[in-house]
């Protein structure tokens, strides 16, 4: 991973200065937005296929249960293998992927017993795995990165501070041994590296056992004052690399298997018939969902990841009918949500409304004494922004939005009411029943409509010259007859091919 | 045409439907239906898939909103005539893994007559057992419903309707995918109901058996194509109007023998 | 009372005994001390388990399990807002949670009715958005200095230890009202859950009863949150019902059993989490509840997997024995008589694992004996084989002439003795027919 970061940094250095890169990445909002967007893109791409396959809630289940994989791998690493716990370790990632697949398999198993319905099977499987994970965490894990709070909301706000330092020049590593003149004699200055104690462990353990002995990376050596010339460093937030790799994997998967995914999402049986092995694809998708969930875990927390999977694709689904467009839109919505979500957490809503003044207003109106200073969870705020974009799409979508649908329905309703009346007249005119059925005054009774509604419809029909009323009997005009024939041909006879 | 019947007949018809229209998303599912079903007939409602047969029944029974129109049962609106009406929904409309027994399902037919708080007692139990006996299901009374075959499920539903002791019955595809024994049992029940002066409306799919089973028929394809006594109504011309060209390959053995008409 | 009924009541008694036995055992082995506080907690948790179990049955039967998940997540912002408005007052928090859940339901319904978004996605959107709103609010509340916000996160993972006596009173009062409503509308709820269409045609106000039932489910969820928390609540809601469903075929028994399971999981989960203050109650309860589900799915009589497996292997042996017996009998009679030895090589030639299984089974039954390189039917074996042939002939006749003879229609399980399936007069008719044919 270190190497990958170096390659990217070299590339960036062609365009920006080192200082620019460092300042840019040290801005918490920039780093949070980059990470949020990377997760949003992966989530949106995978979520789109999950939505089309009717499996949105599976991503919810998996985003909970990857925690079990992480915890088990964490415990195995620290207690059995005696490794340094590291949340971006491949062990944790493998564990998480396994837990994701285990969720799907467990759900299948419960469902296959034939004794439990599908929805109930999912509702049983994931609480169990999640519950076990929580018990393990609270009993056996004592680590700041892995407590119940981190599980839910992550630490995207401080992601900028958790960096790998890359040295460009003046790179000097310093090793201080007990016989070094710079060694500060501690109680027991030992070869710390051999005993798995690192300067990075910081704090009491290192100082007590090692004093300042050990190997210092250039960045550490500089900040410990062991170097005279400042090394030229680039600080690279580690979460960016993790989430970027997940994003690249997802994009690669979707590009490579685009047509298979598309086909399998619309018609599983056809895909099977064409020899596409939808089962394999299904599990590959589940593994990727787990990977993205675990990659995002550190930043947004396992439980809020689900929003990045479900909401942007749903919003895009309301805006377009084309799969490729849907993928792009949902990625964009996710990224925008990440950017504006950071603002919201700090109290700025889309640059329009200040949350502090909203709180002040609430205090004034309801006579409360709430703290008039909004400072909240960044990842939760990102989700809320994504949700607000969803609401905007829901209301304003030109094709499926509330407004346009309401307008279209009202129009259809008018046409429909007209045709009900026209059709009725058509059926009864020139028939002996016409005196009974076509009295303009009591026509409304036949339909169980209000008198006003019938009057409105009749007025409309008369002004468009579709009917005429003579001696209180309603008749179709020539145009009216044509309109009925046309409507019948288009709407009633569709079953008669 | 229907109005003529009215004037000669003093008694209100079993079912009088006037200008009934139902729309899903402003698209007509059934359209301006006028129907007059005299008392004591066994009527088949036939038509192609998606012709609105089930929709018609549900709309008449107030189960779905109507866009327009009225339905009168023996001259009364549904709210007043509720106890006169029996209903057999489609078999697939319920979860047959529900934890309940055959007898219990049949007893549900009496829930409407029991008021609040009242539990079904011995009397209801006996009525239900009697109804089960009528459909040859008495031996299955305590069987869990998930253990029933499709035909047995259908007969259970039929018993539940019988126990209601209604005047007019609506049955939604009772013959769909049932075994021969059940088909015969249902036909016997239908005939018995007719003999007792009941009126029965059946959504039916099998054109071959219409003439044997029913004395009245309504051909429906969104609109009513024709309705009346089977002999006069179930003609190849009407069938063609209902089904379009497709009826041609439906009648390997000719659904109706047209020679006489 | 039928055998099945007796079994269910026995089970209910067994759970009660198990629950009672758990207390001394846990005192000795787990060092749990049942002081006043813990007694209150266990009592409150059991009541919460009961109400979740009862309403969970309806959630499961209505296929709304995951709706339970969405609803419990959706309760969180209500808790936050109620706290801001009224402070840490359980009644207020619950009302807030209830309203918030209800808004979630409304949002899901309006999404479903106005867009092409499907139910699972609609629930996912609501779940995620409401939960995020809740987390954002809790984060804001926790930033407030000196606020007595302690205990608010118990709504996330549940913490039964926070339950005090006044809470138990509130829980008991609400539960009583809920139970009364269920008892009063029992047959309506049953009918509307099983067959809403028929209920509608019978003049029941389906929408009203559906809404009422959903409201009760929301109440159960909101109360249960203290125990299981928003994330795991769905497990507490549905697990007891799913487990109970395996043991009984009757709705009333299912509900009672589910209440017992819920009380058991709630009470024991709460007691177990008292061992270690670090462990929230929710996960403990879910693990206990899932154990109950596992046991039920595996061992419930007649329906459980172990039962089915046993039945299947028995059937396999029985069928293998029957076909092998027929082969032996056929060979023997065509070579001189029923007890004529059948070469083992001939039987091996038929092949298939089932032959060996069949031979072993027949030997165990004493139907055949090994005689050097051959198998010989014993007297009882020959008799059984002859009886089987006769039985098959009667079944053949039944199939051909059953209708003409006016015999009732039965499931034609030809491996069973026809006398077990048909009445004596019916079999006599067939016997007479057979005699007439052979003579």
Structural description of this entry:
The complex is a heterotrimer of chains A (497), B (261) and C (439). By secondary structure, chain A is mostly helical. Helices cover 66% and strands 6% of the residues of chain A. Chain A folds into three domains: 2-154 and 239-396, Orthogonal Bundle (ABC transporter involved in vitamin B12 uptake, BtuC); 172-230, no CATH class; 403-495, Winged helix-like DNA-binding domain superfamily/Winged helix DNA-binding domain (Arc Repressor Mutant, subunit A, Orthogonal Bundle), CATH 1.10.10. In chain A, a hairpin with a 2-residue loop joins β7 and β8. Chain B is an alpha/beta fold and 261 residues long. In chain B, 34% of the residues lie in helices and 22% in strands. In chain B, α5 (122-134) crosses α6 and α6 packs parallel to α7. The two termini of chain B are 21 Å apart. Chain C has three domains: 3-303, ABC transporter involved in vitamin B12 uptake, BtuC (Orthogonal Bundle), CATH 1.10.3470; 308-377, no CATH class; 382-438, no CATH class. In chain C, strands 1-3-2 form a three-stranded antiparallel β-sheet. Classes of the chains: A mainly alpha (497), B alpha/beta (261), C mainly alpha (439). Chains in contact: A-B, A-C, B-C. Chain A binds chain B through residues 409, 412-413, 415-416, 420, 423-424, 427, 432-433, 436, 446-449, 491-492, 495-497, and chain B through 1, 3, 18-19, 21, 23, 25-28, 31-32, 34, 48-51, 66-70, 221-223, 242-246.
Query: How many separate domains of chain A?
Result: 3
Helical fraction of chain A: 55-70%
- Using only C-alpha atoms, the radius of gyration of chain A works out to 33 Å
Beta content of chain A: 5-15%
Order of SSEs of chain B:
HEEEHEHEHHHEHEHEEHHH
For this structure, what is the CATH homologous superfamily of chain B? P-loop containing nucleotide triphosphate hydrolases
Level-1 CATH class name of the largest domain in chain A:
Mainly Alpha
SS summary, helix count of chain B: 11
Largest interface, Cβ cutoff 8 Å: A-C, 62 and 60 residues
Spans where pLDDT lies below 50 across 5 or more residues of chain A: none
State the separation between the terminal residues of chain A, measured CA to CA. 63 Å
Radius of gyration of chain B: 19 Å
Strand count, sense and barrel status of the largest sheet of chain A are:
2 strands, antiparallel
Mean of residue pLDDT of chain A? 81
Would you identify the CATH architecture of the largest domain in chain A?
Orthogonal Bundle
In terms of quaternary structure, the protein is heterotrimer
Please count the beta strands of chain A (DSSP E, at least 2 residues each). Answer: 8
First-last Cα distance of chain B: 21 Å
